[in-house]
Structures are given as structure tokens and as C-alpha cells.
Specification:
2 domains; mainly alpha
Length: 80
């Protein structure tokens, strides 16, 4: 049995799409996009501090993974 918080991805995408379409502009600053995603996650999962920490940890991990991937690409493309 999964005890980790889960989000129905179809519902998440539906709500995200709706929220983004209601914004006055399609060009969002990163902090505004982050606010919208955080708002939707909180609506779908709740506002417990532990849930917020889990979400922030996941975002940080995603950035870390991309950073590592970029470093590997740089190393592979650097002539020996």
C-alpha cells in the first residue's frame, strides 16, 4: 500500500490547464508559474507542512537531475 501523497495526473493537468488559460498573459515569469503549480498541488493534496516539504524536495531534486544531466553532456562534448 502506497503511503506517499499522490496526485491524479489527469486531474492535475486539467486544473493546471484551466488555471493557466485564465491568466491574463501566456508569458509567465518563473515565480508566477511556480505559484500556479504550487497552488494547484495544494488544492489537490492539502496544505500540510509535510506535503509542502515533499513538493519542494521533489522540485529541488528535479533541478538537481537536470543539472547533472547538463554536466554530463558538457563533459562528453569537451574535446580530450
Amino acid at each position: 500500500m502506497n503511503t506517499e501523497p499522490t496526485v491524479n495526473t489527469d486531474e492535475f493537468l486539467k486544473v493546471l490547464s484551466s488555471e493557466l488559460k485564465s491568466l491574463p498573459t501566456q508569458d509567465l515569469e518563473l515565480c508566477d508559474l511556480s505559484n500556479e503549480i504550487g497552488f494547484i498541488i495544494a488544492k489537490l493534496t492539502g496544505t500540510d507542512q509535510s506535503l509542502e516539504n515533499e513538493f519542494k524536495s521533489g522540485i529541488a531534486h528535479g533541478f538537481e537531475l537536470v543539472s547533472r544531466e547538463v554536466e554530463v553532456i558538457k563533459i562528453r562534448s569537451t574535446p580530450s
